[in-house]
Design brief:
Elements: H1 6-18, H2 21-28, H3 32-46, E1 51-54, E2 57-60, H4 62-90, E3 94-100, H5 104-119, E4 123-129, H6 135-140, E5 146-151, E6 164-179, E7 199-201, H7 207-218, E8 224-227, H8 232-240, E9 246-249, E10 259-262, E11 270-278, H9 285-297
Parallel strand pairs: 3-4, 3-5, 7-8
Antiparallel strand pairs: 1-2, 5-11, 6-9, 6-10, 6-11
Helix pairs in contact: 1-2, 1-3, 1-4, 2-3, 5-9
């Protein structure tokens, strides 16, 4: 029987994710030669070639991809075992690290922490504010236990990424922000399609960019990105100055004098707030309690 070395399998998985030996070494805080040596040893243990030359780089062989498919099940089972052992030893006590994008912290995470202080005081929650696009990177690296991110749609029942289990906490409605003197600021029955020719303000990449583009494309047009910004203070300041229009999530509860917020009743654009954990980790008592508290923190109107 082949010898399966968990540490070496984790190195192989990181190489698959990062693409190069150098990037893998940086991620794992190893030297490139150590990474190569560990993978060479793993190939000998398993009796199959795992890497092949591809120009000046290396790429995974078909055998390596086969190994990783089975390794993901092993990693998930180890997460379950670790979660159950923690629950056995600590019961309702434990530390859970939550990575969340800026608007989710006051709207969801803080209310959840307040509720847990009363219901499960032995559970400590450490919060790390992060960009929605980086949440999965932190989760995969083991730096957070729960990641809150954004998506255009709710995750499918069978998720394509074997590393994570995901759920939609809520569908957050999107309103449009217009300059106070805009000709459509008081237009009855405003629709996204009415804003086809407007300059738009949204992030240059990541989930929020995808959400804005998807909402506009669903209304029949591709938004012209006039300016790129990710912070609501910057976005609304530009809207107020007449530099463009923007979609704003209702959960953000941001307002600014000189900016009119309009509900798009006919279009109903939304963004999905996603909670993700490493697959198998949700069985842990502490992580499970924090996930439940986050679900309870969702406003009744958004459920």
């Amino acid at each position: 029987m082949s010898e399966w070395d968990i540490k070496k399998l984790q190195i192989l998985r990181t190489l698959s994710e990062r693409g190069t030996v150098t990037a893998t070494a940086q991620t794992l805080q190893m030297t490139p030669s150590a990474v190569s040596q560990q993978l060479s040893n793993l190939a000998k243990q398993l009796g199959v070639p795992l890497l092949e030359a591809h120009g000046r780089r290396v790429r995974l062989t078909d055998a390596a991809h086969l190994v990783l498919r089975h390794a993901e099940a092993v990693f998930a089972q180890l997460e379950r075992a670790d979660a159950e052992l923690t629950a056995y030893v600590q019961g309702e006590a434990g530390e859970v690290r939550v990575g969340a994008f800026s608007t989710a912290v006051p709207a969801l995470v803080v209310p959840a922490v307040r509720a847990l202080r009363a219901a499960a005081p032995g559970i400590s929650v450490r919060v790390r504010e992060t960009e929605a696009a980086q949440a999965y990177e932190l989760l995969a690296a083991g730096e957070v236990d729960i990641a809150l991110s954004l998506a255009v749609q709710a995750p499918a029942a069978v998720d394509g990424d074997a590393r994570f289990a995901r759920e939609s906490l809520l569908a957050d409605p999107l309103d449009v922000a217009l300059p106070g003197d805009h000709q459509l600021a008081s237009e009855a029955g405003l629709r996204l399609a009415d804003l086809t020719g407007e300059p738009w303000i949204f992030g240059g990449s990541g989930p929020w960019s995808e959400i804005t583009r998807a909402a506009c494309e669903g209304a029949g047009f591709t938004p012209e990105q006039a300016h790129s910004a990710s912070g609501w203070t910057s976005i609304l300041a530009m809207v107020e100055a007449g530099m463009g229009v923007a979609l704003v999530p209702r959960m953000a509860t941001v307002r600014r004098d000189g900016v009119v917020m309009r509900e798009l009743a006919e279009d109903h654009p939304t963004r999905h707030v996603i909670a993700a954990v490493r697959r198998g980790a949700a069985t842990g008592a502490a992580v499970s309690r924090v996930l439940a508290a986050l679900r309870e923190a969702v406003p009744q109107r958004a459920r």
